[in-house]
Inverse folding.
C-alpha cells in the first residue's frame, strides 16, 4: 500500500554510500511484463518492485494509440504519486510505442521502455542482416521499431540490413488464458509467421512481452536456425545500469519486496500470473481507474484494421518490411 516502502535514501550501515529504498515501478497490460519482472528480480534481487498488470483494460494492442498513451500516463502518475517509485519501467511494447515520450516529459523519475533494448539485442543476434520483429498491431503500426533501427544505423550501430515486421493479433489473448501450447495457437502461429519464414530472417525479436511465453511454439514454426530474441534481459540490464549511474541503487544484501496489483480479477491474475512468473504470487492487490480514461473529443491515431470510435475492434492481420542497404549510410 502507499507509504509502505521507505520514503527515500538512507546510508548503508556498513559502507559510506547512499541507498535508495524506494521501489521500482513496472507495468504492462497484463501478464507479459512478468517476463521483464522476472529478469529484473534475478539481476537485482535486492530491489523493491511494484508491478501493475492492467488486466481490466487488456489487451492494449488493438486499441487506438492515444488511448494507450492515456493509460500509460495514468499508470505512470499512479506509480509515482501513490508508491513513490524511483523509476518507471514500461514493460509493454505497445505502451512503450504509444506513451514513452510523454511519460519521460511528465514524470520526474527515469523511464525505461522495452523497444530500444530489444532492437539492440536483435542487431547483435542477426548474422545475415535479415531480422524480424513480431508484435501487436499497435506496436507494429506505430513504426517504433523501424524508427529505432533507423537511428541505430545512422549512428553506426549496424547489423540489420533488412527489418521485416509482422503483427500477431491473438497471441496475447492465448497467453492471458494460459494457453501457450495448444493446437489452436500453433495453427495461428503458422499462419502469422509464414511471411517471416519465407524471407529468411535469422533472428526474430519477440516484440511483445507476452510472446516469450509462446517461445516454444514460435520456435517450432520458425525452425532451429532462427534465434529468438526477448527484450526482457536487455531491459533488465539497462535498468541496472541506470540505477547505478543515477545513484538510485538500493544496495545491501537484503532481498527486495515485490508487490503486485491488477485492475482486473485479482484471483485470475494470481493463478495465471503464478504459472507464468515461475513462482507463486501470494498476494495481488486490486486497483481501479475512473470510468473515463481518455478524452472523448481527443483526436485518435487509428490503427489499421480498426474503425474510429471502436476501441478494441479486431484488427486485420498485416506485415511490413523495410530494407536497409549499408551504402545508404556510408560516408
Amino acid at each position: 500500500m502507499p507509504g509502505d516502502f521507505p520514503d527515500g535514501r538512507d546510508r548503508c550501515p556498513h559502507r559510506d554510500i547512499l541507498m535508495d529504498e524506494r521501489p521500482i515501478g513496472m507495468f504492462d497490460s497484463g501478464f507479459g511484463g512478468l517476463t521483464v519482472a522476472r529478469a529484473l528480480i534475478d539481476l537485482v534481487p535486492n530491489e523493491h518492485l511494484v508491478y501493475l498488470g492492467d488486466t481490466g483494460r487488456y489487451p492494449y494492442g488493438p486499441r487506438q494509440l492515444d488511448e494507450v498513451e492515456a493509460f500509460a500516463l495514468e499508470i505512470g502518475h499512479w506509480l509515482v504519486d501513490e508508491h513513490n517509485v524511483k523509476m518507471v519501467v514500461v514493460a509493454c511494447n505497445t505502451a512503450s510505442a504509444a506513451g514513452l515520450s510523454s511519460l519521460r516529459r511528465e514524470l520526474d523519475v527515469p523511464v525505461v521502455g522495452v523497444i530500444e533494448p530489444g532492437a539492440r539485442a536483435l542487431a547483435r543476434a542477426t548474422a545475415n542482416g535479415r531480422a524480424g520483429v513480431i508484435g501487436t498491431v499497435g506496436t507494429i503500426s506505430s513504426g517504433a521499431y523501424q524508427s529505432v533501427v533507423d537511428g541505430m544505423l545512422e549512428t553506426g550501430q549496424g547489423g540489420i540490413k533488412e527489418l521485416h515486421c509482422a503483427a500477431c493479433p491473438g497471441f496475447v489473448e492465448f497467453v492471458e488464458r494460459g494457453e501457450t501450447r495448444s493446437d489452436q495457437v500453433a495453427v495461428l502461429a503458422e499462419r502469422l509467421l509464414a511471411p517471416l519464414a519465407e524471407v529468411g530472417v535469422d533472428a526474430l525479436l519477440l516484440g511483445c512481452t507476452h510472446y516469450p511465453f509462446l517461445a516454444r511454439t514460435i520456435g517450432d514454426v520458425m525452425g532451429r536456425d532462427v534465434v529468438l530474441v526477448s527484450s526482457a534481459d536487455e531491459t533488465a540490464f539497462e535498468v541496472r545500469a541506470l540505477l547505478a549511474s543515477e545513484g538510485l541503487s538500493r544496495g545491501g544484501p537484503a532481498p527486495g519486496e515485490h508487490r503486485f496489483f491488477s485492475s482486473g480479477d485479482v484471483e485470475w491474475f494470481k493463478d495465471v500470473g503464478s504459472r507464468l512468473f515461475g513462482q507463486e504470487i501470494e498476494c495481488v492487490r486490486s486497483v481501479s481507474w475512473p470510468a473515463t480514461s481518455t478524452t472523448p473529443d481527443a483526436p485518435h491515431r487509428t490503427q489499421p484494421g480498426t474503425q474510429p470510435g471502436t476501441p478494441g475492434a479486431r484488427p486485420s492481420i498485416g506485415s511490413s518490411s523495410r530494407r536497409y542497404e549499408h551504402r545508404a549510410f556510408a560516408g
About this structure: The chain has two domains: 22-113+233-286, 115-231+315-329. The first strand starts at residue 9 and ends at 11. Confidence is low (pLDDT under 50) at residues 11-16, 293-331. Residues 65-83 form the longest helix (19 residues).
